[in-house]
Amino acid sequence: NTLTVRLNSLSTPRDNMAIREICQTLNDYEAVFPGTNPRLFFKTATLETARDQEF
């Protein structure tokens, strides 16, 4: 049983990298939702773009 928490992309690649590291730390902790059994699983919904890609 898991409860997945998906975080949207942040404003900069640096922020996205930081939030991925935070998610990994939280996942390593294997936290459970308070008062229940499901384990919380954190992930990001970032879209990686090519370095030279133009918008």
Summarize this structure briefly.
This protein has 55 residues and is α+β, with helices and mostly antiparallel strands. It is built from 1 helix and 2 strands, in the order E-H-E. It has one domain.
Quote the beta fraction.
Answer: 25-35%
Mean pLDDT: 85
Secondary structural class:
alpha+beta
* CA-based shape: elongated
> How can the largest sheet be summarized?
2 strands, parallel
Q: How would you describe what is shown here?
A:
By secondary structure, the chain is α+β, with helices and mostly antiparallel strands. The protein has one domain. It is 31% helix and 25% strand. The protein has one helix at 13-29, and strands at residues 2-8, 39-45. Strand 1, helix 1 (13-29) and strand 2 form a beta-alpha-beta unit.
What are the SSEs and their pairings?
Elements: E1 2-8, H1 13-29, E2 39-45
Parallel strand pairs: 1-2
